[in-house]
Amino acid sequence: MCETFILSLDQGTTSSRAILFNQKGEIVETGQQEFEQFFPKPGWVEHDANEIWTSVLACVAEVLRKADVEPDQIAGIGITNQRETTVVWDKHTGKPIYKAIVWQSRQTEGICKELREKGHNELFKEKTGLLLDPYFSGTKVKWILDHVEGAREKAEKGDLLFGTMDTWLVYKLSGGKTHITDYSNASRTLLFNIYDLEWDEELLEILDIPKAMLPEVKQSSEVYAKTVDYHFFGHEVPIAGIAGDQQAALFGQACFDKGMAKNTYGTGCFMLMNTGEEGVTSKHGLLTTLAWGVEGKVEYALEGSIFVAGSAIQWLRDGLQLIENAPQSEDFATAVDSTDGVYLVPAFVGLGTPYWDSDARGAVFGLTRGTTKAHFIRATLESLAYQTKDVLDAMIADSGIDVSTLRVDGGAVKNDFLMQFQSDILGVPVERPVVQETTALGAAYLAGLAVGYWKNKEDIARQWRNDHTFADSMEVKKREQLYSGWKKAVAATREFK
Ligand code: G3P
């Protein structure tokens, strides 16, 4: 009999990917396609949902062709996605009525501010574990209903559907038959009560969003639908796992026990700690979120969200054209011994954990006549590590758990300089796994569990392999001195508005 695989669709912020995994949890082949980023106004970020859909199909075609695998060799499909990004489409035509508003986009700050001023912040936090920040989907849905002509009436008549990217892709893959999401994605909408595990009527009323638009919420690992016979799936393949990318990475890193944490360096940077079957309420600017619903129970996580990480490196490459490719940033950073006192705060779309400052914008400090491109690039890389330190400190303060090692993944973990500096600034060893595509791996595991490709979580945990541990080697005094410079830079950035 032919070998079978799990196909993971990783729909990210700047590109879509399709990755085939074998039973050992190894990557067999990858397909990838970037898509356009729209910046209609400062601080706004949008995507074309149809372009995303076709990019996913192109990735599937690419991966199957490169791996020489037939659709009937795919045992199941797992979907993982940039979270919160919001699309609203017409139920009858399947056409989006507006561009997808991306998680990074700040266009709903006005709505959030008004709700905060009315004193709603605590209510939203209590029920959803989130804050009234433009980051989350709820105010994006409201914005679309308020701004697209005729949208609200249509929504009230039940003619519109809302979805995050998981929902949109399942809808398209199933030929428009299935409108669902999973717990992890629902928990990022600002509309879902993470304790009652239901869409919250009171919050929907405050945001004036008709419930009929919302998808049905499912477990993160179960067969939701089968693909219809699009070219690549002449075969009906079960879609069997869904999780938002950060929760999928937590699963892919096998952080199954309470207190285990991972940090993913993607477009943004997201640290999640598994807190087991109980949600922990943060006092330090972290979010409480659903990790997943698996084997009939839900588990929670504490999350620190950094909006700009890998996208700062992309900005060095595409915006400033200081480097030709991301790996070059490491060559420049290691060409100098330090940043020579330069700090870069990449608050391009505001600041997330622990500051939650929507209006802050990026800044550079400490420039001298001697500052070179290398110092500037190094300061950009170091900003990822400092932001992570802000988050880890909040995590330890909230959970009372002393994180003894941090598992890392995502594109930027290939950068040895960054990983070593990360460990030095945290004072904690950083563990980089062999498979660094843990987001896609997590979605594959969720799908594989549902179709019996893997037996259970223990089976999966045994597959985790360490590639390299970066041990911290910086003197405490130096660490404190560097970090206090960062804190001053952040304070000054926030001051300048
Ligand atoms: O919450 C946003 C997050 O899901 C985006 O992830 O990997 O595109 O930085 P990423």
Automatic annotation (TrEMBL):
Regulation: Activated by phosphorylation and inhibited by fructose 1,6-bisphosphate (FBP).
UniProt keyword Ribonucleoprotein present: no
Modified how: The phosphoenolpyruvate-dependent sugar phosphotransferase system (PTS), including enzyme I, and histidine-containing protein (HPr) are required for the phosphorylation, which leads to the activation of the enzyme.
One Pfam family named in its UniProt record: FGGY_C
Record domain Carbohydrate kinase FGGY N-terminal: where: 6-252
Alphabetic keyword roster: ATP-binding, Glycerol metabolism, Kinase, Nucleotide-binding, Phosphoprotein, Transferase
PROSITE patterns the record matches: FGGY_KINASES_1, FGGY_KINASES_2
Residues the record lists as binding sn-glycerol 3-phosphate: T13, R83, E84, Y135, D245
Catalyzed reactions: glycerol + ATP = sn-glycerol 3-phosphate + ADP + H(+)
One GO MF term attached to the UniProt entry: glycerol kinase activity
Binding residues for glycerol: R83, E84, Y135, D245, Q246
PANTHER family per UniProt: GLYCEROL KINASE (PTHR10196:SF69), SUGAR KINASE (PTHR10196)
Subunit structure, interactors included: Homotetramer and homodimer (in equilibrium).
UniProt protein name: Glycerol kinase
Origin species: Halobacillus naozhouensis
